[in-house]
Amino acid sequence: MLQPLPTIAPNGSARPRIRAIDALRGLVMLLMLVDHTREAFYSTVSVADPLGPDTPRALFLTRLTAHFCAPVFVFLTGLAAWLYAQSRGGAAAASDFLWKRGLFLIALELSVINFAWSFDLTPAMLYLQVIWVIGLSMLALAVLVHLPRPVLIALALAIVLGHNLLDGVHVAGEPGHAIWAVLHERTIFDLPWGWRLRISYPLLPWIGVIALGYALGPWFAAEANGTARRRALTRLGLAALALFVLLRATNIYGDLHRWQAGKDALGTALQFVNLTKYPPSADFLLATLGVGLIVLAAFEHLPERATRLLAVLGGAPLFFYLFHLYLLRALNLVAADALGVDGPVSVPNVATLWLLAAVVAVPCWFATRAFGRLKRGSDAWWLRYL
């Protein structure tokens, strides 16, 4: 028996949204908020690497939860592109939208988002981070959507699982350095007028992730069997986790950095899951996407009331992203002024950090809900890009 997906009823001409997808995206937003609260209010704590072997474990685990965010969000972006194609007339319509939105996100990263991090109109360093790479991934997907689905799946898996074969390739000082750095090597470029450019998110692995999301789109067709889909998502997630454990345990392939035994069993376990994010290794993507697929299946099975709050955040993620960046920055400036501190304000411990993130989430939720209602009730073309 076919079981239709639970959706959020739209207003006007907006297309229905799938609640489980919005809920998972909303969970990503919350975990990202915690990590960005850490950067805004805990970065002054003397810890060279929040995932280093000597890092306090509470801080390690806090940073570790953020690993879930980018891979799952990019995967869901690909899935959303397939759903858009189905509601707007096919791959050509999706390709056109992906081109426009991708370019819009790149421009947004270079302007509004960089300013949110620095509050400096002439920053010495421009950072090309997650919104930049999502924009570039969309441009790539705008081309890939025209491939036959089996070819797209094969290409996506080849990139996700095979890109670590390129870890030893370095072309610094050669003509192709800039292109290679954008694709697979985190680096800094010197620009005219004394500016510098930091590529924080190399592109190549993310093309595989967004393509994989698009390729799995037919599982979410309106006529698809819900029980079979949840079972398939769970099995695929477990298979990804099993392959991650196998690759990581052998310590031969899958991540640039091999794990080593820690001071105790927990320390060893934490180093086992301390994976390379920039660019995301095959192990990193298997672990995070495996968990994401299982959570997506679980959210589909939950009653509507259990995921309602998360779905609000996931219904307008770009608005949430912009709003929370400026809110965190403003709160730190206000706190510094109130306390008479010259520089960023820092909370005393990780528990306070999580509490602060929970407090910040409240105005973010209400603002995102208001914007989501505006977006669903309007036919304005520009709202589709936010």
Automatic annotation (TrEMBL):
The chain crosses the membrane at residues 64-85, 97-119, 125-145, 152-173, 203-221, 233-253, 284-302, 309-327, 347-368. Residues 17-233 form the Heparan-alpha-glucosaminide N-acetyltransferase catalytic domain. Keywords: Membrane, Transmembrane, Transmembrane helix. This is Heparan-alpha-glucosaminide N-acetyltransferase catalytic domain-containing protein. It comes from Sphingomonas pokkalii.
